[in-house]
Amino acid sequence: MSHVVFVLLPQVHLLDVAGPAQVFDTAVNCGQPYRLSYVAEHEDVPSAQGLPLTARTRWPTLGPGDLVVVPGWQTTTLRAGPGPGPALLERMRAHHAAGGTVASVCAGAEALGRAGLLDGRRCTTHHAHQDELAARYPRATVVRDVLFTSDDRVVTSAGIASGIDLALHLLSVRHGPALAARVARGMVVYARRNGHEPQTSAMLRHRAHLDDTVHRVQDLIDARFTEPLTLARLADHAGVSQRTLTRLFGRATGGLTPLRYQQTLRLERAAHLISHGATVEAAARDVGFEDARMLRRLRARAA
């Protein structure tokens, strides 16, 4: 049994809680023995969206294999937010010191910062709060424009829906990518994004469909877009002919071929690397091009 404890603070964002909670609850339906609990300083917790929530004030007994999650809350600045009191901060510190994992969604990184858990570690938060988080916790390394980070059992994610990506990542690390994929399909969440991807991604723009065959192919491309992927391999993975795959893929994605979709992911990742200081040559190699000429041509065509 693995316990997942959500720490609820006033004005908590509902999706910050519900997204990760749904991931672990769906994992239970897939045979994994997770138990979910919700704790707060007071039993009644107002949410940012107006729905009142109820939590326990007494913490369950936790072990090293358990997870504490701090969802974000509505605030204009991190400093002005509610923040946890000393007792909650000590609970989080003690859990991490005992070998447990502590995670945050969006502004929840502020709680981890107050607990001292960000010092000397990589972290992230919603792009609107990244500058303030870096200023408030100079001993932390704030990684900008990524979906989530993981550093020594301290896991932080960007805003709102990225909590789902974080939870799927934790499932994948613990149980393997097959279970994470099964949970995502059960939730009808097909854009399973990696932590290094930018907070807005091409993977989302071409997932607004319900063709499971195409989603399975996109899953493979998303995971291996830096590798050579032939149409034959993709069709075999989907269990259809190459002609059928091309037709289904184009219909579901608004006219893209699998190769064009893969190139789009490569271009986006390369642009992200270049914006963070990589040379065009280094970015081209990182995303799977043999040299920078193809990357330059594709970037010019997309401009």
Automatic annotation (TrEMBL):
Organism superkingdom: Bacteria
Which Pfam families does the annotation name?
A: DJ-1_PfpI (PF01965), HTH_18 (PF12833)
Question: Under the GO molecular function aspect, what terms does this record hold?
Answer: DNA-binding transcription factor activity; sequence-specific DNA binding
What Gene3D superfamilies has UniProt attached to this entry? 3.40.50.880, Homeodomain-like
Assigned keywords, A-Z: Transcription, Transcription regulation
InterPro entries documented for this protein: Class_I_gatase-like, DJ-1/PfpI, Homeodomain-like_sf, HTH_AraC, INH-QAR
Which part of the chain is the HTH araC/xylS-type domain? 215-303
- Spell out the protein name for this chain: DJ-1/PfpI family protein
The organism encoding this protein is Streptomyces buecherae
